[in-house]
Design brief:
13 strands; 2 domains; 7-stranded mixed β-sheet; 280 residues; alpha/beta; Rossmann fold; single chain; 31% strand; Beta-Lactamase; 6-stranded antiparallel β-sheet
C-alpha cells in the first residue's frame, strides 16, 4: 500500500504497490478502471480494483481539501499540487468562460506525478558547467526524464554559494506549503510560487537581485528570459526536447537558445546525453 504519509490522500488507500516508493513515478486513476502505477522506467502495473466515478470524485475533493473553489486557478490550468510537490493532473469536461478554460467538471481521471528529492543528482552538471564560473543553461529532456528533479538539486547546489530565485509556477520544485519550501532548494534560494514564468522572472529582477533565476518548462516566455540574460542574470530553464535539434526547432526555445551559454539534453533518469557550449 502506498503510504498516506508520502502521498497525503486517504482515498487511494486501496492501492497495493509491490515496488518501493522511490521507484514510483506516476499513480494514474480512471473512473471505471483499476489504478495503474508507472515506475521510473516507464513500466506500468495494475494495482487495484476498478475505481468508481464516486471514488474519483471523492479523491478529487480530498486533493482540493474539500474546498474545490479555492483551487479554481490551478484547476483551470489542469492540475493541483499536493503537499510534498506531487502534481495531480486532471481529466474531465472543460468549462470555458470567454473562450478560456475556467474549470473542469465530471472529473474522470487523475494522474498523480510523484516528486522525488534526489540529492546529488545534479553533481555532474554542476561540476562540469558551474564550478568555475556562472553560466546560463537550457535543459532539454523528454517527459519523465527527470528535469524537475535535476533542477531542484541544481538550485540546492547553486544556492550554497549564490543568490538564486526559483520561479515555481506549479509548486513542484520547492514543494512549498503556505509559501514555505518543504524540500531542500538551497541556503540562498528563494521560491516565487504560483506565478507564471514571465511575470516571475520580471518580479525577481525587480525585487530579489538574483545571480541565478531557475524555472521549469519555459513556453512563450522568451522576452522575459532574454531581458534577464541582458541584465546579467544567469537563467537556468527547462524545455521538452529529446535532443539538441528539437531545442533548436521548437518555437518556444528557438529564439532564446542563442543567448544561453550552455544547452544540455538529458535522457532516462537524468542521464546527460548531449551538450553544447557557446549558445546557438
Amino acid at each position: 500500500m502506498i503510504s498516506a504519509v508520502k502521498i497525503p490522500l486517504k482515498s487511494i488507500a486501496k492501492i497495493r504497490v509491490s515496488m518501493p516508493f522511490s521507484s514510483v513515478a506516476e499513480i494514474r486513476l480512471r473512473a471505471g478502471r483499476p489504478c495503474v502505477v508507472v515506475d521510473i522506467y516507464g513500466e506500468m502495473s495494475v494495482c487495484s480494483q476498478p475505481f468508481s466515478a464516486e471514488e474519483i470524485a471523492d479523491c478529487f475533493a480530498e486533493i482540493c481539501r474539500y474546498s474545490v473553489h479555492s483551487y479554481q486557478d490551478e484547476i483551470s490550468r489542469g492540475f493541483v499540487t499536493l503537499d510534498g510537490g506531487h502534481r495531480v493532473g486532471i481529466c474531465g469536461t472543460a468549462v470555458k468562460n470567454n473562450g478560456k478554460i475556467d474549470f473542469f467538471k465530471d472529473i474522470s481521471g487523475l494522474n498523480i506525478r510523484i516528486a522525488h528529492e534526489v540529492k546529488g543528482c545534479a553533481d555532474e552538471l554542476y561540476e562540469r558547467f558551474f564550478a568555475d564560473k556562472p553560466r546560463s543553461l537550457l535543459l532539454g529532456g523528454a517527459p519523465m526524464s527527470g528535469k524537475t528533479t535535476l533542477l531542484r538539486d541544481l538550485a540546492r547546489r547553486l544556492g550554497e554559494r549564490h543568490r538564486v530565485t526559483l520561479i515555481d509556477s506549479r509548486g513542484e520544485l520547492s514543494a512549498s506549503v503556505h509559501g514555505t519550501p518543504t524540500l531542500d532548494i538551497g541556503l540562498n534560494t528563494d521560491a516565487l510560487c504560483g506565478c507564471g514564468k514571465s511575470e516571475g522572472i520580471m518580479m525577481a529582477l525587480r525585487t530579489m537581485s538574483p545571480e541565478y533565476i531557475i524555472c521549469d518548462e519555459i513556453g512563450n516566455d522568451g522576452a522575459a528570459v532574454e531581458q534577464a540574460l541582458f541584465c546579467g542574470v544567469k537563467i537556468i530553464a527547462a524545455a521538452h526536447a529529446a535532443n539538441l535539434r528539437e531545442l533548436e526547432l521548437r518555437p518556444q526555445t528557438r529564439s532564446v537558445m542563442p543567448f544561453f551559454d550552455v544547452a544540455v539534453v538529458i535522457g532516462e533518469r537524468g542521464r546527460l546525453i548531449e551538450s553544447r557550449e557557446g549558445g546557438g
